[in-house]
Amino acid sequence: MKNYLLFILRFCLILLSVGCSSTKTVNCPPEFTIYKNVNKAYPVYAEEFELKLQNTLSTANKLEDTASVTLKSKVVKLRQDLNNISSRVEMLTKSNLMAYFSGICDEAVRARFSEFQNKLADLTLQITKIEAKIGPSKSSGEDIDKKVDEALEITSSISQDIQ
How far is it, in rounded angstroms, from Cα 73 to Cα 136? Predict the structure, then answer.
């Protein structure tokens, strides 16, 4: 009886360990390892974008702390735009990951996902440009105001691109 219970316990542990894995291997030439849960995959695929976005938001927060009243309102708008872009990019990335993971053996699906990854890299570059615009500088107040306006134009462009 004791051996029977040990066997059942080991079997259950094996089932738990296999079922709790966050990745699985798909065997279509070539072999791919994919995530079972898109929420766990998102940080891996969008890590650089999220890092750049958080750095840009941090820079905006520092700028807001030292800004005049009119500049503060622009910085608040910039932060809101960046947060909206972040949410939209997360939704797009997760939906593209779901399509990719469900059709990974299809070359057309892989090609579309590759195009999306290129778009995500371009968005990351745009976010980096925003950070460079609003980053620390020895510019006058008017120059900073102009740079924030330019950053707002970039966020507007990004928002249109990801519609």
Answer: 18
